[in-house]
Amino acid sequence: QSVLTQPPSASGTPGQRVTISCSGSSSNIGSQAVDWYQQLPGTAPKLLIYSNNQRPSGVPDRFSGSKSGTSASLAIRGLQSEDEADYYCAAWDDSLNGGVFGGGTKLTVL
Amino acid sequence: QLQLQESGPGVVRPSETLSLTCAVSGGSIDSINYFWGWIRQPPGKGLVWIGSIYYSGSAYYNPSLKSRVTISVDTSKNQFSLKLSSVTAADTAVYYCARRDFSEAHFDSWGQGTLVTVSS
Fold it and tell me: What digits encode the pLDDT tens for the residues B97-119?
């Protein structure tokens, strides 16, 4: 059972916009920044979004993040086949004094 | 360009201690701007934060693993290490080392990961 809650799966067709949610509590998302990681099959995770809505250099602007209260979302517009991957949200948890991840969402491009 | 490389045994016997090292190249481990961390991923499952360490030796651990985990840093070799004691099959996972931003807490650079299997 992960501290942060994500839907196990999501899907969309090429060109579509999809969103992935991440729900937490006041000790993590409610008071700390949220990050998102993309994990392509058989590879290490890659930082996709940090500090709620910031994109590292090289990440397409099709990817965006937002946060409201104790929930966060990752949005992908103009979905492409290469976006098929697992996506994880993460945050620091003040109560645990450590980092926490969501359980991950497997995105399928139909 | 920063590179992190995990190394260590691929198989560990139950009840023994898992030991991994992460060699850092292309950057200095004693930078004031970063922590250095370990994350694991059991087969077919999600990511689990294990802990992070600063170059000074100050460390934070996942409470659920804290009694069995030690993370250390060797600035002379530009590397940091993970020790997990009393392992069981539940500790079988891909173990990743990563660099963590000091102020914003995200992991911005990851090693390729190494699979450790606990088996007799």
Answer: 999 998 888 999 999 999 999 99
For residues A9 and B16, give the distance between their C-alpha atoms in angstroms, rounded to a whole number. Answer: 36
Closest B-chain CA to A5: B46
Q: What are phi and psi of A18, to 5 degrees?
A: -125, 150
Amino acid, single-letter form, for residue A79: L
Burial of B76: CB neighbours in 10 Å, binned 0-12, 13-18, 19+ = exposed
Are B43 and B93 in contact by the 8 Å Cβ rule? The answer is yes
Q: How open is the CA angle B74-B58-B20, to the nearest 5 degrees?
A: 45
Residues A59, A37 contacting (CB under 8 angstroms): no
Residue A101's DSSP bridge partners are: A90
pLDDT tens per residue, range B43-85? 999 999 999 999 999 999 999 999 999 999 999 999 999 999 9
Chain A interface includes B42 (CB < 8 A): no
Chain B residues lying within 8 Å of A96, measured CB to CB = 62-63
CA angle B103, A69, A45 (to 5 degrees): 50
SS3 A46: strand
| Closest residue to B46, CB basis, from A51, A99, A103 | A103
